[in-house]
Amino acid sequence: MVKRIYCFEWIIALGFLLLVAVVSSKNHGNQANDLVDLINKNRTSKRLPQLNNSPGLGCMAMQYIKECRFNCSQVNTVNCKPSEDDFTEIFAPNCGVELPTFGTISGLIVGCHQKHLDPPEAFQNVLVHNNGTLSILRNRTHREVGVGIIRAKRHKGPYLWCALFGSNERNSTFVLEDLGKGIEQKEGCYSGSGSSCSSGGRNGSFVWMLIFCIFVLSSTGFF
Ligand SMILES: *[C@@H]1O[C@H](CO)[C@@H](O)[C@H](O)[C@H]1NC(C)=O
Ligand SMILES: *[C@@H]1O[C@H](CO)[C@@H](O)[C@H](O)[C@H]1NC(C)=O
Ligand SMILES: *[C@@H]1O[C@H](CO)[C@@H](O)[C@H](O)[C@H]1NC(C)=O
Ligand SMILES: *[C@@H]1O[C@H](CO)[C@@H](O)[C@H](O)[C@H]1NC(C)=O
Ligand SMILES: *[C@@H]1O[C@H](CO)[C@@H](O)[C@H](O)[C@H]1NC(C)=O
């Protein structure tokens, strides 16, 4: 009987730790937002204005690389050319971008890598790795930006990154329906959304918390 009560307590404790792990990974897990910060830091270092973080652009950036997910080569180049029409016919509807608010896209950078990279490495080695992409980043026309990250396959495969820039003055473009929530995405990760990255960014803290829980439980003779 005593043993059974302890067991019950441990299940409560484990559940609580898991909850903490899930919540904390949600709060820290959006690497697409980190990339937007890096883009803005790089711009302000050249006295260029900061760009607004647009979830509508971010989600469409993610849709773009979703279409290109199997087109990352062994040497980390993306050989993929979605049609222009896909933006209004596929990407925007999949995100819940309200079509009348579809603005002007002023730049696009796409890259991939066989391994997961943290935001500073992804910025330097994948997104902004040459003069061409650096000049896109530093274009004066942009006003807003969105970043998307996705994994080619659910549990493995290369990662893809995409930054989409818009040149619209006001904040009323690429508006997501349902009061800015848009359509929930089942995978990947994009900037400007309050939510976490699922398969786009690694949920490191969650895995470590789980290992920690198992360690605690086994060291107390639970198993
Ligand atoms: C991806 O690569 C395949 C094979 O090389 C090609 O047929 C396809 O058109 C590419 N996808 C896009 C969207 O460009
Ligand atoms: C900046 O972007 C705009 C829109 O894409 C383009 O027309 C223009 O040539 C770019 N300017 C530079 C300096 O690259
Ligand atoms: C901006 O990005 C470029 C390309 O990755 C890099 O060479 C440069 O050092 C960066 N500048 C700053 C201030 O971070
Ligand atoms: C890139 O730009 C820098 C500075 O403008 C220049 O020194 C360098 O030669 C350029 N590199 C290439 C490969 O064009
Ligand atoms: C656009 O929204 C951002 C925050 O989302 C805000 O900081 C910025 O001032 C807004 N710009 C305009 C022109 O309303």
UniProtKB/TrEMBL annotation:
Q: Cross-referenced InterPro entries, in alphabetical order?
A: CAP_sf
Q: Which UniProt keywords apply?
A: Membrane, Signal, Transmembrane, Transmembrane helix
UniProt entry tagged with the keyword Nucleus: no
The signal peptide, as residue positions, is: 1-25
Keyword Metal-binding in record: no
Segments spanning the bilayer are 205-222
- Supply the name of the protein: Uncharacterized protein
